[in-house]
Amino acid sequence: MLRHSATALTVFYSHKFDTLRAMTRLNTVSSFVIPRGPLGRLLMWSTFVLSLAHSVTALGEATADPRAPIQAHADPWHSAIGQLAVPVTRVEHGYTRHYTEHCTAVAVTAGPNPLILSAWHCVEGYRSLIEPIQLRMSGQRSPISVQLVASGGSMEQDWAAFRPTAPLSGASWIPVSAQALSHDMAVMAAGFTEYAAPPGAGPRPRSLVTHRTCRITDSDQMPVASDCVAKQGASGGAILKRTQSGSLRVIGIISAGDGESVSLFYPAGSLLPRFASLR
Predict the structure, then answer these.
(1) How far is CA 232 from CA 55, 167, 260, in A?
(2) At residue 268, does pLDDT exceed 70?
(3) CA dist., res. 232 & res. 201, Å (int)
(4) pTM tops 0.90, yes or no
(5) 99 within a domain of the structure (yes/no)
(6) Tally of domains within the chain
(7) Would 134 disulfide with which of 125, 128, 143, 230, CB 3.0-4.6 Å?
(8) Among 113, 109, 112, 123, which Cα is nearest to 163's?
(9) Is position 125 within any domain?
(10) Residue 79 zone, left/alpha/beta (φ > 0; ψ -120 to 50; rest)
């Protein structure tokens, strides 16, 4: 259960929100409360939407960006992670708005009809009977349509599961780990986002970006906290851990954060009992 206050975290939508709207929406929908201690102090800054964090980055930050873009298809697991485009409808200030949320998703089972995980808040507001949710896996030229089959339905359960509407070929998958999570566990964050480096070079098109040297900072609360850096578009991306043999496992789904030093994620292992019913 979340133990949070009225201060809101930023979800990693790609759509740009103004600060007041983000604070209002996340306070009412997410009901996040800031825990005490160092994590709480860090999260007090997170009412700024990620678009503002992105703007600060563009102006040049004192702290170096620990993330790095992945070289195309350097490892097979890269093709297990894709870009999710969700047509959503929301009422803002009395007006109905239509736009596309850009998030990340990861295939977690094998075969041409894999189970694909992302974040629930990416599909909040999806009500279209005409426009499908689109997924483009790494290395694929064209997107495919995917169908939402289940979700947590709230920020407290910020996960969503999809199936492709047609066979998906050429994609890899990353299994979900059943390992218990612990404080200071070494993890890696991966998601599709714009990436600008060095400062002044300007934004690049969305690409698969990783923070390879981060750790879990609080495994006792839900959602789990890490010091991974993630930015716009990373929602639904994967928090990964290497096994002793060197292979990767999905341990979490990126949910929210401050865009600089805190990322929260939903523990993917808690979904394993559901997989049988979603097959």
Answers:
(1) 11, 29, 11
(2) yes
(3) 18
(4) no
(5) yes
(6) 1
(7) 143
(8) 113
(9) yes
(10) alpha
